[in-house]
Amino acid sequence: MLLVLDGAEGMAAITVGPGVAPATPGRGMGPAEGADALFVTLSAGFTALSHPLLYVKLLVQVGHEPLPPTVGRNLLGRKVLYLPGFFTYARHIVEVDGKRGLFRGLTPRIISSTLSTVSRGRVKKAFPLEDMEHVSNKDDVKTSLRKVAKETSHEMMMQCVSRVISHPLHVISMRCMVQFVGREIKYRGVFSSIGTIWKEEGLWGFFVGLVPHILGDVIFLWCCNLLAHFINTYAVDDNFSQASVIRSYTKFVMGIAVSMLTYPFLLVGDLMAVNNCGLLAGLPPYAPVFSSWIHCWRHLSAQGQLFRGSSLLFRRASSPATLFID
């Protein structure tokens, strides 16, 4: 399971129930193919619906704050400065670009999401876990960990493959969106953007920011699965009447917690995707030209900005803008 940290890209696996027969040649689309197509369509729909949220999130990540902070109160009742939340920021985008402006960069993002979803399904079918053994709290520690490791390794392989395949379109989508900052039109259509990146940066240009994204995915999967396993196996008592219900939600809850731990990898990956690409959002004063993703990480860490953009509702102005007003 992988929560929605950077959209629907690479986050969903295609599942087909047991006993579903493959399509027969010459007889149209079979049940399995129909289920796959439906899942891809639903994934694309979710990507479109969530796009304004991720668009605003990206602009906050690159440090674009076009609106001044407003005075609010914290939990202690003291006055502090808050930066505009999602709805105020989205309204600003509409005022500048119209309602269609909220969907800038959507096309490459939908393609990226589709490639991710399809590739996960293909990998899952090509390398099925035929002898998957479900973990039981009756297993000893060594046996249960072996089962969890096997399942997580399989999930990791699917996620890494889908991430690599979908990342070039993710880079294009990011660059299309951050053009809002400098009002550029350098990256417009998918094919023209591919030509621009190939001409200016070569093959590597399509994979900038890939390493931190993959590291974040891998850390997320292992931490989430292992924590959920230990809680379900050793903390939830079978004698408790709601034990099965609790176990069904453990992984989801752990995912939310672990996503905060891995957020800096997402942030660094997205910033590297737009850094030094000829757009204002990837150049000083918004960001220095980074030599590597580690350089980017250290820069953000030194400024206390590794979690910039992690919240879009209650955003306190960061130091030195954070002031207590009497």
Describe the structure.
The chain is globular, with a radius of gyration of 22 Å. Helix 7 (243-274) crosses helix 8. It contains 8 helices and 3 strands. Strand 1 and strand 2 (79-83) form a beta hairpin. The longest helix has 42 residues, at 141-182. The protein is mainly alpha-helical. The chain has a single domain (31-316), classed as Mitochondrial carrier fold, CATH 1.50.40.10. Strands 1-2-3 form a 3-stranded antiparallel sheet, with no helix packed on it. Mean pLDDT is 84; it is low at 1-26 and 320-326. The termini are far apart. Keywords: Apoptosis, Membrane, Methylation, Mitochondrion, Mitochondrion outer membrane, Repeat, Transmembrane, Transmembrane helix, Transport. Solcar repeats lie at residues 146-234. It is found in: Mitochondrion outer membrane.
Mean pLDDT: 84
CATH topology: Mitochondrial carrier fold
N-to-C order of helices and strands: HEEHHHHHHHE
The biggest sheet amounts to: 3 strands, antiparallel
Strand content: under 5%
- The helix content is 55-70%
* Largest sheet strand order: 1-2-3
GO molecular function, one term: membrane insertase activity
Subunit structure: Interacts with PSEN1.
Family: Belongs to the mitochondrial carrier (TC 2.A.29) family.
Organism: Salvator merianae (Argentine black and white tegu)
Task: Write a concise synopsis of the structure shown.
It is built from eight helices and three strands; from the N terminus they run H-E-E-H-H-H-H-H-H-H-E.
